[in-house]
Amino acid sequence: MRLFLALEPPHKLRERLSELAELAQDRCGGRRMPDDSLHLTLAFLGEVAEEQGAALSAWVGERPIPTGEWRLDAWGTFRRPGIVWVGGRSPALERLHESLWAELSAFGFSGRAEHFVPHVTLLRRARQLETRSLPTIDLSWPWRRLSLVRSFTENDGARYETLARSPAA
Ligand code: 2AM
Q1: How confident is the prediction for the chain on average, in pLDDT?
Q2: Atom of ligand 1 nearest to the CA of 40
Q3: Is 4 in the pocket of ligand 1 (CB under 6 A)?
Q4: Residue 40: band (very low, low, confident or very high) from pLDDT cuts 50, 70, 90
Q5: Scanning 22, 32, 75, 109, which has its CA 20 to 30 A from the CA of 38?
Q6: How many domains would you assign to the chain?
């Protein structure tokens, strides 16, 4: 199964991100992420065997994470595969990313990306990767819980299912 560790946005923020995705699509084209799929990936694990997935679910379910607040104040793009995102630098998220990967390595996982760019993907396959005309943003994302998410590939994109959440801190 294909898994990743993520933060899921609070309800009000999800609504705001959805509005931004609509605005961005008007300017840039491409496909919007479904509202209920909006997330921040902290660690992409790729294909994981059933038993390892079960062990990860138990680990996430028992392990509170330090809470924090992420300030999203930037638009960005990844040329391939035409991603338009919102995000922002955050030392607290970098520490969380770092500590999660330290524990994941002990589990035997590898594949940590060289650079961690905290972002929420709003559009894929955008025709235009120009974000200068998009509104200035300054959003706050208070986080409390980590999610283990499974990704299913379907004809019209990926579908996500949350398998486990860490206890509320
Ligand atoms: P993206 O939003 O920038 O596409 C599920 O696919 C999540 O894992 C998405 O957030 C995606 O990031 C990220 N992801 C997918 N493939 C990845 C890879 N090979 N390396 C790092 N992150 C990946």
Answers
A1: 96
A2: 10
A3: yes
A4: very high
A5: 109
A6: 1
CB 151 less than 6 A from any atom of ligand 1: yes
Reading the block at residue 135, the tokens are 């509104």
CATH assignment of the domain containing 18: 3.90.1140.10
pTM over 0.90: yes
Mutate to test the pocket of ligand 1, among 7, 39, 41, 147 (most ligand atoms within 8 A of CB): 41
What is the tens place of the pLDDT at every residue in 57-75?
A: 999 999 999 999 999 999 9
Which residues does 13 contact at the CB level (< 8 Å), separation at least 6? 139, 140, 141
Q: From atom 9 of ligand 1, which residue's Cα is the shortest distance away?
A: 41
Which domain range does residue 96 map to? 2-165
* Token representation of residue 105: 């390595």
